[in-house]
Structures are given as C-alpha cells and as structure tokens.
C-alpha cells in the first residue's frame, strides 16, 4: 500500500516547517491533547516518516492540521518534529498560520486573527497581509513561567553549571554565560550539540520534578537554550535552541524565546510591557514581548507574544510505500 501526504513546506525565520494539509490519519473528534495521545499510540510512524531521513532531516519540524474541537478556535494542530510530538511549537505556529492563510486552508472567525487549538492550550496569532502574502505574524503564546532558578548541575566536558528551568510551551534548561561557559561567541554548532546532550543527561535525574502544575502530562526537560548578550543594535540577546538528538533551531525559537522571557521576568530583569528581541545563530530575530502578568499554579509568570515571519518554499506530495524498507525513516547517531 502507498500512503500519500500533501504537504506545504515553509520556513520560519530559517527553521523548516512542513505543514501536512492532506493525508493525515483520521482521529476522533476530541480535544487535541487527547488526539495527540491517540496519534502517538497508533500513528507515530507518520511523524518519523515525514520528519526523519530520507524524507526529512535532523532539524525537520512540522504541523498536522485538524478541525478544532474547541468552538472558539479556527483549527487544531499537532506539532511534529524529530524529537517527538510537542505540546507547542512557536516557529511551527508562525509557519502553519502563514501557510493556512496564504493557501486558503482556513477562514478565521475574526479577520486578522487566527485561533489555534494546540495540546498546550489555545494560541492566538495576529497577522498582517501585503497583497496575498502574510507579511508578519505575532503569536500570543501560552502562559510561561520560571519553574526553578539556579539549579546546579555537573555537565561532563564543562563542569558545574547553574541553569534555570523555564516553561514557554515546552520546558527548557536556560543557560547564561558563567565561569564554566563563557557564551556563544566562538562556539561551534557541534559543540552546542555535544554540550546540550551532556546537559540533558545530567538533568535527567530531576526530570520527574519538572511538571507543569496545571497539566501533569507536560513534564521533563528535553530542550536547552544557550543564551548570550546582544552582538549589535538589532537585538537584546542571542540564543541557540537545542532539541531532539542533534537539532539546533535555525530561528530564535518561539517556545524558547517565551521561556527565556519568562526566566528574565522571574528574575526581575524583564517587566510586563517590555520587549526582548532575540537573535538566532543565523541572524534572524524574533521580537518578544511580555504582554501580561499571570499565575501558573505556584509560579508567577507572563503571557508572552512573539513577532516573526515565515515564507512558503513549495508544495510537496510525499509517498510512503509499505514495501519501502525505510518507510518509517531513520536517524544516524
């Protein structure tokens, strides 16, 4: 049997986003987090086939569009990437919103605003048009917060580090320059991957303690964001977001920038109403803003927004043949 998927490929500030607009597995009409559980149980091969080689690559990410269950949302999305099926993806949201509007896949209830049901909760996206193109997008993300500050961890190859654990749609280990890590300048991509793997392994012992206070299904620290100061007047800081086994986000990271702002707010360094322009390794910038103060369980946090852009790169009909020995994809360690 041959499975056919119609995908619209795009990138958000440099990071690939593959939007699955046709051929996705049929799922019961349930809240999207429950559909996510069913997808992971019965259809995760779709994610690996579309994200892993030979149809994808080490930093591939994407989204599958579904009808919304919530009446106040325009559509629902499952975020797929090499590391799994995420509760939320900021770059993915900016990319899928651009694709959905430009390609006519959805008609928003409110012109200029798209309401998306994600496993992490409702996410709103404001967008501006220039002709028939989505010129810019502002993502209003889920409540974000500093979970744990100044966690000491011994990282092989670096030594003792102090890291903060913050949530921005996914949990992140947030690392800033310190004695045993001088910052991003001069650090290669391969070094970021090596240190991130070692850091995640060192944090594994506290993974059970890092749990979202309002949804225990969201737990563990699987992402890292290495942060540094600005390198020019066009940003307020720089970062490198690590996820999966060896992926570095080419964008500044939507959930990563949200977690970074939550960390800065939690440490008294970013006030509500202030902006934080975050630059990626390739020089693209997300304009973050702390929109509102919120409380998430016992944690003081913010409602963050992220301003960015995406561009469609092509239409892609992907075939997965049951007779293909590599039909479910592969990764090389």
From TrEMBL:
Enzyme Commission number, as recorded: 5.1.1.8
One Pfam family recorded for the sequence: Pro_racemase
Domain of life: Bacteria
Keywords, comma-separated and alphabetical: Isomerase
GO molecular function: 4-hydroxyproline epimerase activity
KW Isomerase (keyword) present: yes
Similarity comment: family membership: Belongs to the proline racemase family.
Protein name, per record: 4-hydroxyproline epimerase
């Amino acid at each position: 049997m041959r499975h056919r998927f119609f995908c619209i490929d795009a990138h958000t500030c440099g990071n690939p986003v593959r939007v699955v607009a046709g051929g996705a597995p049929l799922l019961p009409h349930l809240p999207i987090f429950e559909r996510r559980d069913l997808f992971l149980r019965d259809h995760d091969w779709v994610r690996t086939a579309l994200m892993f080689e030979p149809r994808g690559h080490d930093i591939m990410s994407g989204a599958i569009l579904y009808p919304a269950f919530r009446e106040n949302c325009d559509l629902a999305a499952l975020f797929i990437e090499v590391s799994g099926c995420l509760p939320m993806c900021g770059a993915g949201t900016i990319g899928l919103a651009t694709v959905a509007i430009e390609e006519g896949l959805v008609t928003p209830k409110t012109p200029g605003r798209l309401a998306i049901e994600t496993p992490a909760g409702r996410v709103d996206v404001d967008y501006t048009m220039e002709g028939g193109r989505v010129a810019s997008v502002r993502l209003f993300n889920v409540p974000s917060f500093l979970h744990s500050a100044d966690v000491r961890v011994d990282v092989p190859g670096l030594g003792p580090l102090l890291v903060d654990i913050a949530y921005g749609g996914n949990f992140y280990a947030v690392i800033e320059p310190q004695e045993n890590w001088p910052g991003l300048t001069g650090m290669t991509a391969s070094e970021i991957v090596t240190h991130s793997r070692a850091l995640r392994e060192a944090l594994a012992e506290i993974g059970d303690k890092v749990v979202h206070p309002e949804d225990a299904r969201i737990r563990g620290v699987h992402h890292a964001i290495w942060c540094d100061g600005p390198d020019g007047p066009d940003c307020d800081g720089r970062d490198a977001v690590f996820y999966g086994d060896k992926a570095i986000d080419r964008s500044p990271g939507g959930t990563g920038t949200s977690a970074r702002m939550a960390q800065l707010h939690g440490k008294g360094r970013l006030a509500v109403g202030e902006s934080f322009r975050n630059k990626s390794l390739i020089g693209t910038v997300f304009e973050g803003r702390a929109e509102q103060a919120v409380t998430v369980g016992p944690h003081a946090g913010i409602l963050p927004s992220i301003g960015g852009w995406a561009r469609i790169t092509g239409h892609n009909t992907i075939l997965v043949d049951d007779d293909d020995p590599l039909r479910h994809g592969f990764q090389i360690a």
